[in-house]
Amino acid sequence: MAGATVPGSAGGAAHSDAKASRRGGIHLVRHPLVEHHVTRMRRESTRPSEFRGLVRRLAALMAYEATQDLPTQPYRVTTPICDADGVQIKGRIGIVPILRAGLGMVDPVLDLLPMAEVWHLGLYRDEATAQPVSYYDKLPAKRPVDVAMILDPMLATGGSATAALMTLREWGVPQVKVLSLIAAQAGVDAVASQFPEAQIYVCQIDPELNAHKFIVPGLGDAGDRIFNTLDPHE
Ligand SMILES: O=P(O)(O)OC[C@H]1O[C@H](OP(=O)(O)OP(=O)(O)O)[C@H](O)[C@@H]1O
Ligand SMILES: O=c1cc[nH]c(=O)[nH]1
Ligand SMILES: [Mg+2]
């Protein structure tokens, strides 16, 4: 899959060390399927049932891209025929969905990483200030995961991603990836400059935010579209 600044994979080695290929910054996931699904997701006429499927598909494509530098270690198995040398992912991986909208990305990422731990963070944007408000955080005080993947379909001002990154920094997570389907240029730039070590994966970067800090053209409120809570009378 083509990525604008995607870190190189360890390619071909039986096992690899993430430090060799890890690179912070913004990684634009580019692929015809990604562009096709993002376009359908943007459409106002796309109903929540289809919208959820598009989020799942895009999350899987993105996770495939974002996991290419995960370290592996040798793992020998016995087939019905004989022993075979293989590999397994090394270390603990934490999936960190930001409630609510990030929940829509959890299952496809867990399908790819069934051994991962899921640590939820509850954040919503205050409607008047667009500042993130934390309402759920049960991260343990100790034993951080080795790699955390923050899941949130939208990165607008970057306030919510920043709050999540701060929380994971306090937990002591050494490598953090942010997976957002659509980002605003200003928000993604702000997060990248505050957390240059973070790997930020996005499918599309939109040019601006409107007066209510919604992404333009964006897709509206991702949480409402996933959970079918848009008020039809608004
Ligand atoms: O970059 P930011 O300016 O912080 O905006 C992005 C955040 O806004 C949305 O959440 P929202 O507050 O709508 O909560 P929800 O997921 O419960 O709908 C979105 O899912 C992000 O978490
Ligand atoms: O455009 C936006 C901005 C924040 N949250 C969303 O769901 N959409
Ligand atoms: Mg919302």
TrEMBL record:
GO molecular function ontology, one term from the record: uracil phosphoribosyltransferase activity
GO cellular component, one term: cytoplasm
Domain Phosphoribosyltransferase: residue ranges: 29-229
The keyword Signal is annotated on this UniProt entry: no
Ranges where the record places region Disordered: 1-21
Residues that span the membrane, as ranges: none
Keywords: Allosteric enzyme, Glycosyltransferase, GTP-binding, Nucleotide-binding, Transferase
Catalytic activity: UMP + diphosphate = 5-phospho-alpha-D-ribose 1-diphosphate + uracil
Annotated EC: 2.4.2.9
Enzyme class at the top of the EC tree: transferase
GO biological process: UMP salvage; uracil salvage
InterPro entries: PRTase-like, PRTase_dom, UPRT, UPRTase/APRTase
Pathway: Pyrimidine metabolism; UMP biosynthesis via salvage pathway; UMP from uracil: step 1/1
Any one Pfam family match given in the protein's UniProt record, by short name: UPRTase
Cofactors (names): Mg(2+)
Biological function: Catalyzes the conversion of uracil and 5-phospho-alpha-D-ribose 1-diphosphate (PRPP) to UMP and diphosphate.
Family stated for the protein in its record: Belongs to the UPRTase family.
Protein name: Uracil phosphoribosyltransferase
Organism annotation: Lacipirellula limnantheis
